[in-house]
Amino acid sequence: MQKMNVESFNLDHRAVSAPYIRVADRKELPHGDVLVKYDIRFCQPNRAHLEMPTVHALEHTMAENLRNHADYIVDFSPMGCQTGFYLIVVGDHPADEINGLVAAALQDVLAATEVPAANEVQCGWGANHDLAGAQEAARAILAKRDEWAEVMA
């Protein structure tokens, strides 16, 4: 296959074993700052996916709560394939730190009683959230935390 510009397009999605967390990209910026993008995969590609209201609720809840645990968060965004999320951070951090950060935010999802900013003022589709689905997905990925470092099947 021809090498593509988008890193995930060069990943053989048949060869991975979700759930996992992997470094998807690392960029050193002109002034020396480093951005690292993590692929946080909840579901096995092409076999399972999260429903959009679940994705949306996870996105809101984790994007808000990740920032409560670390000041180096740049972005937390869903994958269009609905199998996971990208987390972008400033600086290099050990895998156990990132795994702990993600686990803490997932615990926050489990403790949530509502989805942050799930309303017409703060969200473009405020009614499209499923907190129970997000909590189910959080429980499932947390139950396999010991497998997060095993990316390839």
Description of the structure:
The structure is a single chain. With 153 residues, this protein is α+β, with helices and mostly antiparallel strands. The protein has a single domain, classed as S-ribosylhomocysteinase (LuxS) (Gyrase A, domain 2). 31% of the residues lie in helices and 20% in strands. The protein has helices at 52-69, 95-111, 131-143; strands spanning 20-28, 34-41, 73-78, 84-90. Strands 1-2-4-3 form a four-stranded antiparallel sheet, covered by helices on one side. Strand 3 (73-78) and strand 4 (84-90) form a beta hairpin. Helix 1 packs across helix 2 and helix 2 runs antiparallel to helix 3 (131-143). The two termini are 20 Å apart.
Q: Can you write the helix and strand succession as a string? A: EEHEEHH
In CATH, the homologous superfamily goes by the name S-ribosylhomocysteinase (LuxS)
CA-atom Rg in angstroms: 15 Å
- The top level CATH class name: Alpha Beta
Residue fraction in strands: 15-25%
CATH architecture: 2-Layer Sandwich
CATH fold topology: Gyrase A, domain 2
- End-to-end C-alpha gap: 20 Å
Instruction: Describe the strand arrangement of the main beta sheet, using strand numbers.
Output: 1-2-4-3
Query: Percentage of helical residues?
Result: 25-40%
Q: Give the beta-strand count.
A: 4
Largest sheet: 4 strands, antiparallel
Structural class: alpha+beta
Q: Count the domains.
A: 1
* Spans where pLDDT lies below 50 across 5 or more residues: none
